[in-house]
Amino acid sequence: MSAIDAARASLYIRDTLSTIDEMGCTMLRASWPRMLSLAAIALAMAAAGCSSGGSGAPSGGSAAGSSTLVIANAVRVDTLDPEANSVNESIWLDQNLYSRLLQPNATGTGLLPDLATSWNTSKDGLTYTFHLGNAQFSDGSPVTASDVVFSIDRSRAFKGGWGFLLTPVKTITAPDPHTVVITLSQKHAPLLADLAMYAYSIVPKHLVQTQGKAFFQHPVGSGPFYVTSYKPDSEVDLARNPHFYGTMPKISKVKILVVPDDNTRVLMLESKKADVIENPPGNLTSQIDKTPGLHVDLFPSTRVDFIQLDEHFGPFKKLAVRQALNYAIDRNALVKLAYQGDAIPGASFMPYKMQYFDSSITPYPYDPAKAKSLLASAGYPHGFKTFLITVSGDVAGQAEAVVVKSELAKVGITVAIQSYELLTAYSKEDGGHSQMGERYWTNDIIDPDEVATFGADCKGGANAFNSYWCSTLATSLVNKARSELTSAKRQAYYSQIQQIIYQQSPFIVTDYSPYRYGVGDWVKGFHASPLGAYVLSLETLTVGQH
Fold first, then answer.
1. Which residues neighbour 372 within 8 Å (Cβ) at sequence distance 6 or greater?
2. 204, 359, 526, 537: which has the fewest C-beta neighbours closer than 10 Å?
3. Do 415 and 405 meet the contact criterion of CB atoms below 8 Å apart?
């Protein structure tokens, strides 16, 4: 590991989700009332060292700058329909188009008002009342409580979607155009976090009902940008929403290019055809950092890389086999080869240092002898053959596959690597007919209920990360944790859930890796939150001359 890489890795490990909110000044200037007096806001800004510059006037940057930000992503857009998004790049794109009742802050540790300027909860904790501000969609029509009710109900009902997060919700009503009331069948600790999720973005009821699926080819939202051109395989163009109610972006346009090849994206950054690129290959991060005018940002993330084990495949039904695979893989070697040390060996299935993360759980030690012993006890003294699905063009993923194949060969397991385009790979891994598959998880909400329901509850809607492993105890604990409002009790439940997953090994948690972005020095203020979204930074960043 070079000195630059070592320093960067140290910074990432130190910079956890409890970091100071870098975007605090921006948020304090947001044009929605934050339930603070003007004097309180001014005092808070002065204490934070914020300048008093205004934020509401549209600006294309300085005369010497650019009004357009060009981002090169690795993955095609799956859809612009927030209820149906399954790919992170599309999710993070959509959050620039649509608003929700609330939104996560820049550090992924708290919530901010969005369409709802305030809310209150009944004494019994079963009724939430949200009060809306005077927002408009990008076509100038008002955002009403009726749109909110329609949008949330629509997403709750979507088959294969995220409705399972809101199962305690009984009714959602709109007593007037500026009020939304949600009633619950039982207390639900993550409700506010759930409502800040991308899937519960607000769309205009009358247009979606009239246009159907066609609406999402050129959608209308109330976010800071709107779509001007949509080519999901190659390019999506955005323009600043003139009716946006929040901090008016300083840039007027965003161009998102789809460039699957990692090396090609690096060349685009070096030639200044892109301002920001996602996931530069780990083996090229030092090269980018040494290039004048360029740098790599490693943002603290909620990403968890893991190997999916489909229990429809006979050997993976056996606990001893799953544990053997965990002992057989050298996570330190994997992190070094795939990420040049810019990641942390994985243990818990929950994202690193997120709320209720159990730091007492440590990675499985590298122990090939123990792995062989466990395989023999399970009836596989000579191992077996299997396959590993990977995403083509993903340099880090391919490096990880090389390590996994090599390490498992040492204990008698022969692995055939099968590479596909991302959406094809996910389709093959999700259908219950896979064996091993490279996957990763990132949180979409600040509460652990999402990852626990998705990964530990076999009845939660995702078949425990499509492993088809099931534990009645884990499912019971997930449901207890989501209905418990006391933090200490929730911590105890989630620690127990993490211990069960660790011991049962329904998947192989390999590492916690940061979000990697290559950025031109002419871009000032780009930032991805631990949840992956960069929408707050796009409201304030500038693009200089280059």
1. 324, 381, 411, 412
2. 359
3. yes
258, 282 contact by CB (below 8 A): no
Record the tokens describing residue 229, joined without a space: 């051109």
- Beta-carbon contacts of 439 under 8 Å, excluding residues fewer than 6 positions away, are 305, 306, 307, 308, 429, 465, 507
CA atoms within 13 A on the CB side of 500: 21
**pTM of the predicted model as reported, rounded to 2 decimal places:** 0.85
The position carrying tokens 């418990």 is 484
- Contact predicate 193/447, CB 8 Å: yes
Q: In the 8-state DSSP scheme, what is residue 364?
A: P
Q: Are 542 and 524 in contact (CB under 8 A)?
A: yes
Give the DSSP H/E element, type plus range, for residue 118. Answer: strand 116-121
- Which segments of 314-393 are extended strands (E)? 344-345, 385-391
> 142-198: per-residue pLDDT in tens?
999 999 999 999 999 999 899 999 999 999 999 999 999 999 999 999 999 999 999
Instruction: Give, as one character, the DSSP assignment of residue 251.
Output: S
Nearest by Cα to 151 from 92, 94, 73? 94
Instruction: Look up residue 40 and give its two tokens.
Output: 């309180």
Are 406 and 378 in contact, with CB atoms under 8 Å apart? Answer: no
Nearest one of 118, 86, 124, 398 to 263, comparing CA atoms: 398
Rounded CA gap, 464 and 543, in Å? 42
The residues with which 99 forms a beta bridge, in sequence order, are 202
Beta bridge partners of 240: 225
pLDDT in tens, 277-290: 999 988 889 899 99
Instruction: For residue 225, count other CB atoms closer than 10 A to its CB.
Output: 25
Question: Coil, helix or strand for 3?
Answer: helix
- CA gap 256, 265 in Å, rounded: 12
Angle formed at CA 413 by CA 410 and CA 419, multiple of 5 degrees:
110
Instruction: Provide the residue count of the chain.
Output: 546
Q: What angle do CA 334, 338, 343 make, to 5 degrees?
A: 80
Q: In terms of C-beta density within 10 A (0-12 exposed, 13-18 middle, 19 or more buried), how is residue 273 classed?
A: middle
CA distances from 73 to 259, 268, 269, 465 (A): 6, 11, 12, 25
